[in-house]
Amino acid sequence: RFGASSFSSHCSCGVAGRVSMVFAKSPCSCPFAVLTLGLEASSAAVESAWRRRSRDCHPDKRPDDPLARAKFQALTDARDTLLDPVRRAAAVAVAQRAAAQSMARDARATRRESGDRAGRIASRAARAA
Predict the structure, then answer these.
(1) Burial code of 59-97, b = ≥16 C-beta within 10 A, e = fewer?
(2) What pLDDT score was predicted for residue 21?
(3) pTM, 2 dp
(4) One digit per residue, pLDDT tens: the chain, 129 residues?
(5) Using CA of residue 75, residue 77, residue 80, residue 82, what is the dihedral sign?
């Protein structure tokens, strides 16, 4: 549940961090992914997401979970980052850069795939002739 993000497309920056270890499905330490928020989320939305998600992993609520403290700390760090205007601007810049790189990577893969398909069609046509 913690790693699932509907905004994972901008979170492929590859930054290794504590969050990627704690939130096993989360690819990086992007605070937007940790809180499952979009880049345009308001301060109220950040607080609401933090409250909602922290209820599920608070160490006092889950004393048997050895990762509960780390999960809760990762959520708190993400909230603090998104509520600080300077740190949030840096996080948005990283997320936007990662999204651009991801789109470029996808475009290259699509072109490569299209080229392979065209090559296969041409070779079939040549064999058939």
Answers:
(1) eeeeeeeebbebbbebbebbbebbeeeeebeebbebbee
(2) 39
(3) 0.63
(4) 333 333 333 444 433 333 333 444 444 578 999 999 999 999 999 999 999 999 988 999 998 988 999 999 999 999 999 999 999 999 999 888 888 888 888 877 777 777 666 666 666 666 776
(5) negative
Instruction: List Cβ neighbours of 92 (8 Å cut-off, separation of 6 or more).
Output: 39
Q: How far apart are CA 19 and CA 12, in angstroms?
A: 13
**Contact (CB, 8 A) for 96 and 89:** no
DSSP the chain: --S--TTGGG--S----HHHHHSTT--S--HHHHTT--TT--HHHHHHHHHHHHHHH-TTT-TT-TTHHHHHHHHHHHHHHHHSHHHHHHHHHHHHHHHHHHHHHHHHHHHHHHHHHHHHHHHHHHHH-
Alpha-carbon gap, residue 70 to 35, rounded angstroms = 14
